[in-house]
Design brief:
Blueprint (H helix, E strand, L loop, with lengths): L2 H5 E4 L4 E5 L6 H12 L4 E5 L8 E7 L2 E7 L5 E5 L14 E3 L2 E3 L6 E3 L4 E3 L22 E5 L2 E5 L7 H5 L2 H9 L6 E3 L4 E5 L3 H8 L5 H4 L1 H9 L13 E6 L2 E7 L18 H15 L1 H9 E7 L3 E5 L3 E10 L2 E11 L7 H14 L6 H14 L8 E3 L14 H14 L13 H8 L12
Antiparallel strand pairs: 1-2, 2-21, 3-12, 4-5, 4-7, 5-6, 8-9, 9-10, 11-12, 13-20, 14-20, 15-16, 16-17, 17-18, 18-19, 19-20
Length: about 450
């Protein structure tokens, strides 16, 4: 099966880009993704603020593997595979906590926070050749962090994390530099089980023009609350290919932002504090960068499955495939550490976060309904086999065009074919067509498989 030529049609000469819906339904494709993407790409696990003290841990399923993400007794961040080396039972059965010892509930083998096997009940029954050192907890091939964001890679030969992040670093910094004292994950998470293929959630998180239709109720709410002075803002941004499959939509803020764009939604009593925050950003980072942090939206994809959306608030979304037509989604609110629990600033942020991005908010339930509706429609994929992602191919790419989604699919198809990441595409897509006119052949549309 040729992904780049048969299932992903990238016809730059004619401005046509489409994907075969078998990519959203096929068990064979799902299995291939595990090997081609999730065994070799850097995958987000968590933020260091989730495990602030020695002995703190959270458990995560990442790339199909069970992990324990923890800070050991000496304060070092570690990841262990969450499987007992005796018979394989999951060792850590709590979502989060603090411990000195992980004891398996099955036969009571016990491990310290460094992963060392320290207790084997009935040790006298084992042979003298039994080597306890061979049974320490397993660990992923690679772990690394960028400014508190921790990632794992199951490929020992993978490029370093910073190299992998490529142009996404600029946009991560625009988010992380908003804090004076560093960022933290606000306690608690939103957990979704969605009846759709995981790639639909990636597309949706990077889709710049569904808001007026899918989220019409929120748009009306913003208008009714006295906001929306920049109602054309969403259409005036741009999608950008950041390399290695990463992409971003950046646009002027269309409504209120906790850092640091005031609108009536926040109330008059918040105006002075938000203006002081803006002044701090400008003083620390300069006029242009400070206002860029405050006055722009960012929908950022870290390929393949991490989304950081810096819009009405900052949300970190980790998408985990669970079946060809199912995925889970974990979402967290990211906030400056100086916004203390109980403070008015944090309350504003969480109100804004929950109103738009929460499980009972204006946006998230709408998005889930849309994705599940698409998946239902794919039942007719044999008869209606193609989805179109051509918008903006022949023009400068605005935020309501689809360059950022094509960026994902180009890297996806190339990796699925074993060809590595493709070259980065510029923010204006007309050079794509020019390159084809200079001699490169358009991708051919083959039969659906």
């Amino acid at each position: 099966m040729g992904y780049r030529d048969e299932l992903v049609v990238d016809d730059r000469r004619n401005g046509i880009f489409r994907i075969n819906r078998a990519l959203m339904t096929s068990p064979d494709v799902y299995d291939r993704e595990r090997d081609a993407l999730f065994d070799h790409c850097w995958l987000y696990v968590g933020h260091e603020s989730e495990i602030p003290r020695p002995g703190d841990f959270v458990r995560r399923g990442v790339g199909g593997r069970p992990l324990i993400f923890l800070r050991d007794a000496g304060g070092t961040v570690r990841m262990h595979f969450n499987t007992c080396t005796h018979r394989g039972a999951t060792l850590c059965r709590e979502d989060a906590g603090n411990t000195r010892i992980f004891q398996c509930f099955y036969h009571a083998w016990s491990f310290d926070t460094t992963g060392k096997l320290v207790i084997t009940p009935g040790a006298e029954a084992y042979s003298p050749r039994f080597d306890r050192g061979q049974y320490h907890l397993g660990a992923p091939a690679r772990t690394d962090s960028y400014r508190g964001l921790w990632f794992v890679n199951y490929d020992a030969g993978a490029v370093d994390l910073r190299e992998y992040l490529a142009g996404a670093i600029e946009y991560l910094d625009l988010v992380l530099d908003q804090a004076a004292d560093g960022m933290r994950i606000v306690r608690g998470a939103h957990l979704y089980s969605v009846k759709s293929n995981w790639k639909l959630m990636v597309e949706n998180s990077m889709d710049g023009y569904h808001a007026p239709t899918v989220h019409a109720t929120y748009v009306d709410f913003v208008k009714d609350s006295g906001g929306g002075q920049r109602k054309a803002a969403l259409a005036s941004g741009r999608g950008i290919d950041l390399g290695h499959g990463h992409a971003v939509i950046e646009s002027p803020a269309a409504w209120a932002r906790p850092i640091a764009y005031w609108e009536p939604f926040f109330g008059e009593d918040a105006r002075d504090e938000i203006e002081r925050t803006l002044a701090r950003l400008i003083d620390a980072h300069g006029e242009e960068r400070g206002r860029r942090m405050a006055d722009t939206f960012r929908n950022l994809l870290i390929f393949p499955n991490l989304i950081i959306n810096d819009v009405a608030a900052i949300t970190v979304r980790r998408i985990e495939p669970t079946a060809p037509d199912r995925h889970s989604l974990q979402a967290w609110a990211l906030a400056p550490a100086e916004e203390a629990e109980g403070s008015a600033a944090l309350q504003r942020r969480l109100d804004s976060f929950l109103t738009f991005l929460g499980p009972g908010g204006f946006a998230s339930p709408d998005d889930v309904e849309a994705l599940e509706s698409c998946q239902q429609g794919f039942a007719a994929a044999r008869e209606v086999p193609w989805s179109d992602i051509s918008r903006g191919m022949a023009s400068a790419a605005g935020s309501q065009d689809e360059l950022q989604i094509r960026t994902f699919w180009r890297s996806y198809a190339s990796l699925m074919d074993g060809a590595g990441f493709p070259e980065r595409v510029t923010g204006i897509e007309s050079p794509e067509a020019a390159a084809d006119r200079a001699g490169s052949a358009p991708a051919r549309a083959g039969a659906a498989r």
